[in-house]
Amino acid sequence: MPNKYKVHPLRANLLAVAVVLVLWTPAAPPAAALVLWISVSWLFITALLLEFSHRRARGVLPWQLFPGILLIGLIAAAPERHVLLVWAWIALFMLPQPNWVAAFNISGMLLSMILIAPLLSAPTWVLMLLTLGVLCLVAISRARQLTLINGDILQRLRLMPGLNLWAREQLLRDLKREQLRCEREAIHGELLLFHLKRRQLWPMVPRLCQLIYGFENAYRVDTNTLAAILLSRSPAEALERRQRLIAAFPPNTTSQYVELTDIETDPLDLHALNVLSPIGDA
After folding, report:
1. Which CATH superfamily is domain 165-281 in?
2. Mean pLDDT within 6-35
3. Which of 47-51, 86-90, 272-276 comes out lowest in average pLDDT?
4. pLDDT band at residue 271 using 50, 70 and 90 as cut-offs
5. Considering the entire predicted model, what is its pTM?
6. pLDDT digits (tens, 9 = 90+) for 127-153
7. CB-CB contact of 96 with 141 (8 Å)
8. Longest distance between any two alpha carbons in the chain, whole Å
9. Which residues are 229's β-sheet partners?
10. 94-117 residue pLDDT tens
11. Radius of gyration for the chain, computed over Cα atoms and rounded to the nearest angstrom
12. Residue 228: CB partners within 8 Å, gap ≥ 6?
């Protein structure tokens, strides 16, 4: 899927908003025009630098605060001209954000409402405040749901770019799926565990990923253990593959294997992966 993560549509939306703001600047007063051009610059830079990643970037303090600061600036520069921009706070609250950013945005929204209060009658202002508050609460609730979803996605991440290395949480999910595949396609499946010294684990990851098939995955169970699910046509082929993998590891590596059909996945937890009773030493 060429645009699997919808980065390009998001970039296009940011650029479209920037173009709208550019068209809005000619009739703006000087202070508002300055803030508008700063907003346009920020949107263009963000769109150009945008790159999909499930990983939460560090050091994003300016980026998280900047949209709210710009929105406050636009409303403060020309309240009578930008009164409708108060509804943009709803969009900001829809973004996953830490609590301190949400608190900042709530303060900014209240400040914006105070700035436009002289332009509205009291009943209209109160109704707008209540409506905006309800919609922002809905947006925050939606953002919390996205945060939980992203937390689950983080557990599915490849731990090294370009390699089929996954976290141990993903191994628990894949075990059930591969057990069903073995039963459905009548193939032989094994879980192969390698216990190494900590300093040896990461150097061996590329080698392990190269030796398994492209549709198979490797897993980091803990700081000393790598695992792989091997799918073979027969036990004889599995033995040959297992011996080839073992030969690629350092001599002091301890390895064990378990047939997938002999693993009870329902009560299996992360700790149990290291204390499985193997059918035999690999």
Report:
1. Reverse transcriptase/Diguanylate cyclase domain (3.30.70.270)
2. 81
3. 272-276
4. low
5. 0.51
6. 999 999 999 999 988 888 877 766 655
7. no
8. 83
9. 191
10. 887 888 888 899 999 999 999 999
11. 27
12. 191, 192, 208, 212, 216, 217, 218, 219, 245
What angle, 0 to 180 degrees and rounded to 10, lies between the N-to-C axes of helices 7-24 and 30-49? 160
DSSP β-ladder status, 225-232 and 280-281: unpaired
Residue type, 103: A
Structure tokens that stand for 162 in this block: 């370009």
Task: Extract long-range pairs of 205-208: CB within 8 Å, 24+ residues apart.
Answer: 205/160, 205/163, 205/165, 206/160, 206/163, 207/248, 207/249, 208/245, 208/248
Structural domain spans, the chain: 7-52+59-154, 165-281
Only one residue has tokens 């976290």, namely 167
Say how many residues make up the chain.
282
Q: How many CB atoms lie within 10 A of CB 99?
A: 7
Question: According to the model, what pLDDT value does residue 249 have?
Answer: 93
Q: How far apart are CA 182 and CA 190, in angstroms?
A: 10
